[in-house]
Amino acid sequence: MVESTGRRLLLGVTGGIAAYKAAELVRLLLKEQFHVEVAMTAAACGFVTPATFQALSGHPVWTDMWDARAGNAMAHIELSRDKDALLVAPASADFLAKLAHGLADDLLSTLCLARDCPLLVAPAMNRQMWEHPATQRNIALLRQDSVQILGPDSGDQACGETGFGRMLEPEELAGAVAAFLRPKPLQGVRVLVTAGPTFEAIDAVRGVTNRSSGKMGFAVARAAQEAGAEVTMVAGPVAQPTPSGVTRVDVVSAREMLDAVMQRIGQCDMFIGVAAVSDYGVAQAREQKIKKTDQNLNLELIPNPDILAEVAGLPNPPFCVGFAAESENLLEFAEAKRRRKKLPLLAANLVQHAVGAEESELILLDDGGSRVLPKAPKTEQARRLLVHAAQLYSTRMQRKGKS
Ligand code: C5P
Question: What topology is assigned to 8-181 in CATH?
Fold first, then answer.
């Protein structure tokens, strides 16, 4: 097997039925370029055998305090010293209780206590065990000790009940660990993002809107949060889950979006306008539903405010990033838009390839020229965009500091 050159992780597996999902997690962590070693509790070995994890990780699995393979007979110290992080998944209620109180009566709990790297845990248990005040007290203690709690999720449980307590899915866990260990170029930067479409009411039930899934805006908010920023997102009507750690403000119309943005713009350093704002609103929306007739119905549409242009035109604007979806002449139209709206950075894409899709190709335009971000999932494009935005932002801050 190919040894990864990436970061080093110790995965602790404790006794719970979700232990079988930890096998898939190992595979996904290797894909994220982690070097993974596994330590299991005795109870975990009752659910999945160490051989499974050995085969997947390519390394012997650690189960015993007195394992002779540790050169100085101190596996609990040696194993955690060369790691960038320790992840316990699944973390049972019993194991969390031990961690919260500093117990160290087996290899994994001793490793956790003796570590000098961050600890992340993914709780997995029956919903009543999770809701029990004792477990909640333990979780609060672990948070105080800066342990990162990943999940749990809500849904069907192996015991047949439904509720909170399920371990996060392996994909989500692998992504969260990778994000946790990624550099944080936007640490301390306050970012405001608009996302989704807006909806302009015609009457009580009908309206005018733009086609937008909100996927890119939500991916940008998540990527900014992962990059260390303090993120607020103003979202139009869209069915997307709020990324963890992001403050979400829901709005409906362009006017409401503008108001929500302007209320917060004084407390933000970077503004990223990803929303597909309706360019027109309805001149006179009716409160009641318009009755259907066989006559033509004329609607008067009036231009909506351009939120991004208004923000970029403020006397002391934040660092502004725009998006442009064009159906033709992409570069020319997008660059004209960037100049007109006075944006330091604009991400352009072709409508035909972007709306609703999971992947996109972006072209970044700034004062230094253009660069192509080849086709990739929107989550990845958002990360790349944020890395570039962070570089431009930091250069601007350095210049401001000097002048
Ligand atoms: O619609 P247009 O192509 O001009 O959108 C370009 C950028 O301007 C996008 O980032 C979009 O979020 C923003 N925009 C806005 N308010 C509008 C129209 C667009 O903030 N009314």
Answer: Rossmann fold (3.40.50)
Closest-CA residue, ligand 1 atom 9, reads 323
- Could you tell me if 243 and 163 are in contact, meaning their C-beta atoms sit under 8 angstroms apart? no
Q: Which residue's CA lies nearest to atom 21 of ligand 1?
A: 306
Ligand 1 pocket, 234 CB below 6 A? no
Marked catalytic residue, from 45, 112, 117, 159: 159
Assign domain 190-402 one CATH number from 3.40.710.10, 3.40.50.10300, 3.50.50.60, 3.40.50.10490: 3.40.50.10300
Active site residue 117: no
Q: State if residue 196 touches ligand 1 by the CB under 6 angstroms criterion.
A: no
Question: What DSSP string describes 170-225?
Answer: HHHHHHHHHHHHS--TTTT-EEEEEESB-EEESSSS-EEE----SHHHHHHHHHHH
Global model pTM greater than 0.85? no
pLDDT of residue 2: 43
Cα 89 to Cα 79: distance, rounded to the nearest angstrom: 17
Tens of pLDDT, residues 300-344: 999 999 999 999 999 999 999 999 988 889 999 999 999 999 999
Domain ranges (residues) in the chain: 8-181, 190-402
Over residues 153-200, the pLDDT tens digits come to: 888 877 787 888 999 999 999 999 998 888 899 999 999 999 999 999
Same fold, 8-181 and 190-402: yes
Substitution candidate for ligand 1 out of 259, 306, 338, 362 with most atoms within 8 A of CB: 306
